[in-house]
Structure formats: structure tokens, C-alpha cells
Automatic annotation (TrEMBL), chain A:
<feature type="transmembrane region" description="Helical">
    <location>
        <begin position="36"/>
        <end position="58"/>
    </location>
</feature>
<dbReference type="GO" id="GO:0055085">
    <property type="term" value="P:transmembrane transport"/>
</dbReference>
<dbReference type="InterPro" id="IPR051393">
    <property type="entry name" value="ABC_transporter_permease"/>
</dbReference>
<keyword id="KW-0813">Transport</keyword>
<feature type="transmembrane region" description="Helical">
    <location>
        <begin position="182"/>
        <end position="206"/>
    </location>
</feature>
<keyword id="KW-1133">Transmembrane helix</keyword>
<feature type="transmembrane region" description="Helical">
    <location>
        <begin position="129"/>
        <end position="152"/>
    </location>
</feature>
<protein>
    <submittedName>
        <fullName>Carbohydrate ABC transporter membrane protein 1, CUT1 family</fullName>
    </submittedName>
</protein>
<keyword id="KW-1003">Cell membrane</keyword>
TrEMBL record, chain B:
<dbReference type="GO" id="GO:0030313">
    <property type="term" value="C:cell envelope"/>
</dbReference>
<comment type="similarity">
    <text>Belongs to the bacterial solute-binding protein 1 family.</text>
</comment>
<dbReference type="InterPro" id="IPR006061">
    <property type="entry name" value="SBP_1_CS"/>
</dbReference>
<dbReference type="InterPro" id="IPR006059">
    <property type="entry name" value="SBP"/>
</dbReference>
<keyword id="KW-0574">Periplasm</keyword>
<keyword id="KW-0813">Transport</keyword>
<dbReference type="GO" id="GO:0055085">
    <property type="term" value="P:transmembrane transport"/>
</dbReference>
<dbReference type="InterPro" id="IPR050490">
    <property type="entry name" value="Bact_solute-bd_prot1"/>
</dbReference>
<keyword id="KW-0732">Signal</keyword>
């Protein structure tokens, strides 16, 4: 889901950029008394958004102020107690911490490898189209498939990594029980899944770079590393920014891979925000606490999305 | 532009073809399932959480039951783990998708009792003269009873036991552990195995699984929560720190440190990895539910399986362990006709013959006292006496409040909390402080739960 | 001259080497997964990964012993339905924002926009209740209805409609076309490409839904492939790795083929609205 959502967001970004411009310019004359058509055309979407996005948000906030009994009914009003107990709970703070580690790890690696893939593939050599197809291939992989591929690779007893390690007499690593290794294994799987998308977006940016710039700098005798850092990166920085923020947002919402690969373990090392919501609500029946967690997650995502909007506004307004 | 169009049309064609080609296959699958029902039959939706050979056998029972009569049509649906299923059952109650009869585990007894969503099976037992409830193991019945009334019918019942690879022990010339082993008996075998195999075979593992921890406490005669595991009154506090749990955790931690115990972590993957390692001869001993016997005997084609009672601390008598597994429950959101059909299905599963078949196929213990007399079980025990061990352990147990399960809501939460603590302990943390953390987490859960339910806290 | 040639030659070699190493890293999990799907599980479990004992047995087992075909069908059905609904409702709403004048139009527009800030993952508890009270648990509709529209889709199509030449609408008004007629004959055909793009993306995101189907499906009759694979994996306590890998391959191969043929299209969809 992540990388396709990413793609969606990529599109979103481009459109955001454009629409801001045309929104003011476009003043199409319209028929009067279009109320009926407005209702007919906009009504369904608005109704759906209200029913499945606005109402549940308010309901979630409401639920977070109560305690729930075994049947999931909210019974005792407790105000902000759920939030207080969450923010003082070492488990939840640890979960926040591991989410940040995961998000940062995934974003940094995705960007770094995405850049490496895109810059390597952007040189026109024979067969580069073939390699580009390979580099974007993980876009066709869904969460469950990715999880199964990587679960086998990391399997401590029969997995390929440990078999190779055993063959070369390297230490056998316990990928599923060591908290740090489990985190690394989840990060690697996520990055792999994200790479297809990151490559595609960054590659488009590379493709649109003016060739003349390269020629100029080549004549000036500038080294490739210097050129990359001081010419290429600034030129593609809008794309870079946007790939980063979308990867950030999507990583915060990660659920499927964690559910399939580690179920939040070992020792809660990979128990991230959305998994925690799922665990509390749909395994423990603790809806009030899960609601409080949902509100905190929403705040984080809203801030990040807001930054994204703001940045675009700035970029377009000059 | 033109090219794009072609791509789009191709995509549309591919999708349509895929859709149309899958359509008949999936409809066919559906038809096969409903071929038997003559549309007049009353549909009984049955939710279960059985996997592997147990699932195969259970589906076989469903098929046979549907064939044996023409009034009801039982439809079985798999719902994941016990933990997932409890919430699914509570969440779907009074919706069009909720089950008429469902399998729910030991962890959910208190929760289902308080939910008000079930019809007690006692109601049907009282009415049904053809069913003699005394045929069913009293220890198992006690577990699922409250105030003398049977809430759900015990179905798949297991005992935690200890498995060892007898062939492997023989290969390295190691004396097997006694039938009722102490911790040091197990340590000895594990250490010998680890050393004599040149560290190629790990001695033992105990999965990070709160249930196994609770059973170690039960076997020491202590309680996991106060008010004698909630049997005397609504529990208000967890009591994970006691002489029994401390001894057990010290035992495991020491041996993990010295390398002869291995830690496979927690969750489905952990138990799968543990099983894979045991079957491939990379692990000598592990503790798990007796329900694994079915899979183990299937998987250990050329190797001999050894089974002993659940281990106990040195210099102490074993108090006995609680049963594991699950019971069958009837929801009260269906018509009385449907509920009657659900009861008939339960009755069918509890027959001496079917319980014997069940034990043979799965390793869960036959609960019908008459199952012993069946040829199925007689032959089974003759062929492999080790399979008798769990039943013997169950028979020897004198039930008390310590070994009859924990009557508290939120055992799912308790197990998650305990898993965290066990994980920490296995990784070398201070035992007392990890268990204290777990107690605190559970206490605040119990307190809030009691508050939300309007109980004393 | 000779020197220079040599230098570029070796540079080229290094470049290819880098390309190949990166390709292997990306393809590694595919190759391992596909290879093991051809091996007997017993050999996988005992670590014999490099044998010539390959067969399609696992694929046959997956197809006959598991409901994977049913899962695939469910996923396809849900994705197609979601796709159709999203295109329909999003285009209607987008049309309203561009061609219909009504009070507080901008307010409504920003209201729609703001839904992008609220993650669906944080709203599953009330949404579960809503779907339950609609009687749609464990049904196709229950998995489609919450995703029948999207702020992003409305946004994208609104943008596309805005780029329509003003004269087109004017001509339509002169001809006396109603909104419906102009929507069908003018707006939709003009924005074909954006519609296709939205269709593709809504299909893919529906195909990759995970959390919501996990919560709302209770039988194999409705489980889509993502959740179905999870069920298969948890039922295989024996860890029949061969069959599991085969199931994963059965699911991934079609999407890879679609991706391969559609990659230009995905890319152009990405670039279509880009400012360059």
C-alpha cells in the first residue's frame, strides 16, 4: 500500500503546485441557481467524506475521553486521563521512540538508495531501459508479498541469510528475536518496497535536468562528486523534499509489514503507532486508549501534511 | 499519447480477462461448499481458530455432521488466533455476520461471562436428556463453569508439556529426563546436548509466551493475580512476582546466558521457528501445549518423540497445571432454532468416538470418559506410549484455584504484558524489575477495567 | 587518444558493474522467493536450497488446497468497484467545484482538502461501528464504501477540468446543454487522461488495502488477497514455505506484468501535472 499511496501523493503534489496557480485565474461564468446540481454533484462525495472521515475523527476524540468496558461501550468519563496515562507509560513512549527510529531509518535509506538508483540509471548507456524497469519493479509488490519474501530471507533457522552466514562461518544472527535486528529487518523490507516509487520519482527529476549544465561544469573541470552535491542536488531539491515528506508520512502509518513480520515484537521493539492502535482496539478491546493513540497519530500526520501544504504554497507564490 | 492509449486498452483487456477467468472458478468454489445444502437447511455459522491437522480434522467433523442430518448446515470459518477471535466475536455481536457457535479460548472465560452475549450451554444440558454431561472430564468442565453452571463446552483441551527429541538424546548418549522432571533435570539434558553436539544442537527453548509463564506459576502453587486467581472475588492486582515465578525465571535466564537455551522470541513466527528447529534436529527440548503432538508425530518421521510432564522447581512437588485450549460457546443473538442446531453440533463433537478421533488427529485430549474404550485410542497408546503422558498429567492433577486458570478480564493484555517482561528477562534484564513493570502495567489495566465495569477496584 | 578510450572503457565497465549490483539487490528477494517456490518444503526446511529438485508442485498445491483463486477474485472485484466509484464520484465533485457556482464553494473545497490531513488508520474504530450498523461487515460493499471518493481524486480532476478551454463551456451553454450533458460529453472526454490516471491509482490503492479488510472480513468468501495471504501464513503452522512462496508468486507475477506493460503510463501519469 505504501508505495502506491506514495505515488498518489506524488501526483497530489504536482497537482497542488499547478492548481494553486490556476485557481485564481480561472473564473468561468456559471449558470445561476445551480444549487440543485451542486447538491447532486458534490453531495455524494461530501456525504462520504463526512461519514467516513469527519464524523469518525470527532467520535475518536470523544471516545478518547472515556473508559470502555469489555464489550467496548464507553462507560466512565475520565477527561484527559487516557492521554496522561499514555504519555507517562514507558511502553507508549518506547513505541513513539521506535516509530521515530523506523521513520527516520526508512526515509534516510529510501532517499539515499533512491538517489543512487536514479543517478546510476540516468546515464544513457546501452540497456539502461532494462535496468530502469528492474529498478522500478518493487512498485508491483504488495505488503503481504514483500513480507513473505523477507520473512523467508530473515528466518533464523532456515532463512537464506543465516544459511549463507553459516556457509561462510559467519555468526548466525537471530533476526526475529534480537530487538535491534528485528527493527533493521523491518526497515530493510520497507525500504525495498518503497524503492520502486522513490526511484521513479527521482529519476523523472534527473531526466528533466538541463544537459547544458553538465557540459558547462564538465568544461570547468568540476569533479563528479562536487557536481552532484552542488549542482544536481539543489536542482532536484523540490522533488527530494517531496519524496522525503511523503515517505515520512507513509512510514508513520506503517502497519501491514509490521503485522505480518514481527507483530510488534520482539520486546515491543517494532510496536509502532498504528500497530499499537490495532493491538489495543482489536486485540485488547481497549478502545478508549486506542482512541487516544489515534488522536496523537492524527496530530503528527496533520502537522506533517500541513508542512507539506505550506511548503508548496511558498514555492508557488514567488 | 497514442502509445498510452494502447497501454490503457491493454490494461483494461487484461483486467477484464483476469476477472472473467477467475469468476467461474470462484463461483465453482462457492457452489461446492453449498452443494450439500438444499436451501431449506438452517445455516449455523461456526467460527474457529484451529490450524494445521486440527483444522483439517475439524472441517472433516463439520462435513460429517452436515451429512449425518438434514436440518442444519454448519459453515466453518477460520478467524486467526484466539486473541483476535475474542474481539471479533464481541465486535460482531448482533450483526449479520456474527457466528451462531464459536470456539473461544481459556483466556476469554471471564470476558464472555460478563459480556452477556452467550447462552450458557448448561441451559441445553438441562433440557437434553440424551446427553450425559458427566461423561465429560470434570476438571475441564470446572474450568469453564461459574457458580455451578457450565458456560461453554470444553472442546479442545490440552496440557502444557515438555517435548524432547529422544533419537537425538540417544545419538549423543544422554539419559532422558524423568517423567516428572525438575528444572535441574532439564538443565542437565540441555547442557549435555549442547556440549556433546559441539554446540550444533541447542539444548532447550521456552517460547516467549505468557501462557507458559502462568503455567510455571500454577505448577508452583502460586497465583498470577490476587484473590486466588480471581476465583474468590474480582481481582484487583497482579501477582507476577512470587517464589514460583522467580525460581523459574532465574532458571531460564541463567541458561539462556550460558547458551544451552535458545530464545526464538514471541508470536506465530516464534512458535513456527521453534517447531522447525526441533523437527530439523537443531533443538533438543521445548515446552508447548500437548496440542502440538499431532504435528510433531507427523513431522518426526524417523525420529522418536519424548514427552514429559511440565517441569517444576527443585525440591518442590509439582502442583499441576491448568488446562489450555478452548471451549465451544453459543451466541444468544440468534434464533432459538439456530441455537438448538449449534447445540446439536456441539453434542456431536463431544461423542466418545469423535473425541477419540480428535485426540488421535491433533494431540488435544479426549474429554469424553468413554473415549478410552475406543479402539482408536487403545491402538494409539499401544503404538506410542508417550502420547499417554498429557492425559496422565491431567488425570493426576488435583484441581485447586492455582491450577484452574485465571478468572480475570484482559488475559490477552496480561499475555502481551508478560511477553514483554519475558522478552526482557531472556535478553538479560533484571528479573524483579521486569516483573514489577509488568505488574504495574497489568494493575493499571485491571483498575481501569474494573472502573469501566463499575466493579470494586 | 588510446588512453582516453581505455579510460572510458573501464569507466563503462564500472558503470555496468554498479548497475548489475544494484539490480541484484533489487531483484534478490524476487529471485529467492521464486526459486524457493519451486523447491519441496522439506528441502527448504533442511536448508538444501541449491538442488535441482525443482517442480511446480507448490503452485499446484496452492491453487488446489487454498482459496487463493477466491482471494484473487475478491481483490479484483473490490478494486474494480472502488475504481469505478472513485472515478464517478470524484469527477462529479470536481465538476461541481469548477463549473457550478454555489455559496461557500471555496469553503467546501478547503473542507475536502483538509481530509488529507486525517489518516484513515486513526479512524478505524468509529468506521467499524458505522459499517456494522449499516449491516455491511464481511461484504464487498463494506470494503468499498469508505473509499468511494477521495480528496486527492477530486483535486486531480478539478485541476484537469480547470484546464479546459473556456470556449468549450461557453459553446455548451449556448447550445443549452445541461450540467449532466456537459459532464458526460464535455468534461469527461476532455479529461480522459486524468480519469485513466485516477482509475489506475484508485485500483492499485484498493488492491493494496490491508488494515481495513483485516478488520471487516470474517470469511474466505470476502477476504481479499492481502489479508488472505496473512490467513494462509497463520494457518500453515507447519510452515509450508514452498507453498507460501508459491502463493506469494501467484499474487506478485500478475502485478509485475501489469507494471511492466504499464510503466510508461504510470510515469507519464506522474509527470502529467508536473511543473517543468
Amino acid at each position: 500500500m505504501e508505495e502506491e499511496n506514495n505515488l498518489l501523493d506524488a501526483k497530489k503534489q504536482n497537482i497542488l503546485e499547478n492548481s494553486k496557480k490556476s485557481i485564481l485565474a480561472n473564473k468561468i461564468s456559471v449558470k445561476k441557481n445551480d444549487k440543485f446540481y451542486a447538491l447532486l454533484f458534490l453531495g455524494p462525495s461530501l456525504l462520504l467524506l463526512i461519514l467516513f472521515i469527519f464524523y469518525p475523527m470527532l467520535k475518536t476524540i470523544y471516545l478518547s475521553l472515556f473508559l470502555t468496558n469489555g464489550n467496548g461501550q464507553n462507560t466512565v468519563f475520565v477527561g484527559l486521563e487516557n492521554y496522561v496515562s499514555l504519555l507517562t507509560s514507558s511502553t507508549y513512549l518506547a513505541s513513539l521512540g521506535s516509530t521515530f527510529v523506523y521513520v527516520i531509518g526508512v526515509s534516510v535509506l529510501t532517499i539515499f538508495l533512491g538517489l543512487l538508483l536514479a543517478s546510476t540509471a540516468s546515464k544513457n548507456v546501452r540497456g539502461s531501459v532494462f535496468f530502469r524497469t528492474i529498478f522500478s519493479s518493487t512498485m508491483g509488490v504488495s505488503i503481504s508479498v514483500s513480507a513473505i519474501f523477507w520473512l523467508f530471507i530473515f528466518n533464523p533457522s532456515i532463512g537464506i541469510l543465516n544459511q549463507v552466514a553459516a556457509f561462510f562461518h559467519l555468526p548466525i544472527l537471530n533476526w526475529s528475536t534480537d530487538p535491534n535486528l528485528a527493527m533493521i529487518s523491518v526497515i530493510i523490507s520497507t525500504v525495498w518496497m518503497n524503492l520502486g516509487f522513490a526511484f521513479l520519482v527521482l529519476f523523472s527529476a534527473f531526466e528533466s535536468l538541463p544537459l547544458s549544465l553538465y557540459e558547462e561544469t564538465a568544461i570547468e573541470g568540476v569533479g563528479p562528486v562536487y557536481r552532484f552535491m552542488h549542482v544536481t542536488i539543489p536542482l532536484i531539491s523540490p522533488t527530494l523534499f517531496f519524496v522525503s515528506i511523503i515517505t515520512l508520512i507513509e512510514s508513520f502509518k506503517s502497519f501491514g509489514l509490521i503485522d505480518l513480520m514481527t507483530a510488534g515484537g520482539p520486546n515491543n521493539a517494532t510496536n509502532m503507532l498504528v500497530y499499537q492502535i490495532y493491538q489495543n482496539a482489536f486485540l485488547n478491546g481497549n478502545y478508549s486508549q486506542a482512541s487516544a493513540e489515534s488522536v496523537i497519530l492524527t496530530i503528527i500526520i496533520a502537522i506533517l501534511t500541513f508542512i507539506q501544504f505550506k511548503y508548496l504554497e511558498k514555492k508557488v507564490s514567488y | 499519447m497514442k502509445n498510452q492509449k494502447r497501454v490503457i486498452y491493454n490494461l483494461i483487456i487484461v483486467l477484464t480477462v483476469a476477472f472473467l477467468s477467475l469468476l467461474p472458478v470462484s463461483l465453482l468454489g462457492n457452489k461446492q461448499a453449498s452443494a450439500a445444502d438444499n436451501s431449506k437447511r438452517i445455516k449455523i455459522v461456526f467460527w474457529h481458530e484451529m490450524t494445521g491437522p486440527a483444522q483439517t480434522q475439524l472441517n472433516e467433523f463439520v462435513k460429517q455432521f452436515n451429512k449425518s442430518q438434514s436440518k442444519y448446515q454448519v459453515v466453518s470459518q477460520f478467524e486467526g488466533t484466539y486473541e483476535e477471535a475474542v474481539q471479533k466475536i464481541l465486535n460482531t455481536h448482533e450483526s449479520n455476520t456474527s457466528p451462531a457457535v464459536f470456539q473461544s479460548a481459556d483466556i476469554s472465560v471471564s470476558q464472555l461471562y460478563h459480556s452477556g452475549y452467550i447462552t450458557k450451554v448448561q441451559k441445553f444440558i438441562d433440557k437434553d436428556k440424551s446427553f450425559n454431561v458427566n461423561d465429560i472430564s470434570s476438571v475441564a468442565r470446572a474450568f469453564y463453569s461459574q457458580k455451578g453452571e457450565l458456560l461453554g463446552m470444553p472442546f479442545n483441551t490440552s496440557q502444557p508439556v515438555l517435548y524432547y527429541n529422544a533419537s537425538l538424546l540417544k545419538k549423543y548418549n544422554i539419559t532422558p529426563p524423568p517423567m516428572n522432571p525438575s528444572y535441574s533435570d532439564i538443565t542437565r539434558v540441555a547442557k549435555q546436548l549442547y556440549q556433546r553436539s559441539n554446540k550444533k544442537v541447542k539444548g532447550m527453548t521456552m517460547e516467549v509466551y505468557g501462557w507458559l509463564f502462568d503455567q510455571l506459576i500454577a505448577n508452583s502453587g502460586n497465583y498470577s493475580v490476587n484473590n486466588q486467581n480471581g476465583r474468590l472475588a474480582t481481582p484487583t492486582k497482579a501477582s507476577f512476582i512470587n517464589s514460583g515465578s522467580l525460581k523459574a525465571m532465574e532458571w531460564i535466564q541463567e541458561n539462556v546466558k550460558s547458551g544451552d537455551f535458545i530464545n526464538y522470541g514471541s508470536g506465530t513466527n516464534a512458535s513456527a521457528n521453534e517447531m522447525a528447529a526441533f523437527l530439523s534436529g537443531k533443538l533438543g527440548i521445548f515446552m508447548e501445549s500437548s496440542a502440538d503432538i499431532g504435528q510433531l508425530t507427523l513431522g518426526m518421521k524417523n525420529q522418536k518423540l519424548g514427552v514429559t510432564y511440565y517441569p517444576h522447581a527443585d525440591g518442590q512437588k509439582a502442583n499441576g497445571v491448568a488446562i489450555g485450549g478452548a471451549a465451544l460457546w453459543i451466541s444468544n443473538d440468534k434464533s432459538s432454532e439456530v441455537q438448538q442446531g449449534a447445540w446439536n453440533f456441539i453434542k456431536y463433537l463431544e461423542s466418545a468416538k469423535n473425541q477419540a478421533t480428535w485426540q488421535k488427529a491433533t494431540g488435544y485430549l479426549a474429554l469424553n470418559k468413554n473415549s478410552k474404550k475406543t479402539k482408536t485410542l487403545k491402538n494409539l497408546y499401544k503404538k506410542n506410549p508417550a502420547l499417554k503422558v498429557p492425559s496422565e498429567q491431567l488425570a493426576k492433577t488435583v484441581p485447586n484455584n492455582s491450577n484452574s486458570g485465571i478468572f480475570v478480564e484482559g488475559i490477552v493484555q496480561e499475555r502481551i504484558i508478560l511477553n514483554t517482561a519475558l522478552d526482557q528477562i531472556y535478553n538479560g534484564s533484571n528479573i524483579k524489575s521486569s516483573l514489577t513493570q509488568a505488574e504495574e502495567a497489568m494493575n493499571s489495566y485491571i483498575k481501569n477495567n474494573n472502573r469501566a465495569n463499575g466493579w470494586r477496584y | 587518444m588510446e588512453n582516453l578510450n581505455q579510460w572510458t572503457g573501464s569507466k563503462k565497465t564500472w558503470h555496468y558493474l554498479l548497475l548489475i549490483i544494484l539490480s541484484l539487490l533489487i531483484l534478490g528477494p524476487f529471485i529467492i522467493g521464486l526459486w524457493t517456490s519451486l523447491l519441496p518444503t522439506a528441502d527448504i526446511s533442511s536448508g538444501k536450497l541449491f538442488i535441482d529438485n525443482i517442480s511446480l508442485d507448490n503452485y499446484w498445491a496452492a491453487l488446489t488446497q487454498t482459496p487463493i483463486i477466491r482471494y484473487l477474485f475478491n481483490s479484483l472485484f473490490i478494486s474494480i468497484l472502488t475504481m469505478i466509484c472513485q472515478v464517478f464520484f470524484c469527477s462529479l465533485a470536481a465538476y461541481a467545484f469548477v463549473f457550478i457556482d454555489f455559496k461557500y464553494r471555496n469553503f467546501y473545497f478547503y473542507l475536502v482538502l483538509s481530509t488529507m490531513m486525517l489518516p484513515f488508520e486513526a479512524e478505524v474504530i468509529p468506521n467499524f461501528q458505522t459499517i456494522k450498523s449499516l449491516g455491511l461487515l464481511n461484504s464487498y460493499l463494506g470494503m468499498v464504501i469508505p473509499f468511494m471518493t477521495s480528496a486527492f481524486g477530486i483535486f486531480m480532476l478539478r485541476q484537469s477540468f480547470m484546464q479546459m478551454p473556456y470556449e468549450l463551456k461557453e459553446a455548451a451553454d449556448v447550445e443549452g446543454l445541461s450540467h449532466w450533458q456537459f459532464y458526460l460529453k464535455g468534461a469527461l472526454p476532455y479529461s480522459k487522461l486524468s480519469i485513466y490516471t485516477l482509475a489506475a491509482y484508485s485500483f492499485l490503492s484498493a488492491w493494496n488495502q490491508y488494515l481495513w479488510p483485516l478488520l471487516t472480513t470474517f470469511s474466505d468468501d470476502y477476504r481479499p488477497v492481502q489479508v488472505g495471504l496473512r490467513e494462509l501464513q497463520s494457518q500453515e503452522t507447519f510452515n509450508n514455505w514452498g507453498m507460501i512462496q508459491a502463493s506469494a508468486a501467484i499474487i506478485v507475477i500478475p502485478t509485475l506484468i501489469v507494471l511492466y506493460f504499464g510503466q510508461h503510463y504510470f510515469k507519464s501519469g506522474l509527470n502529467e501535472g508536473a511543473v517543468k
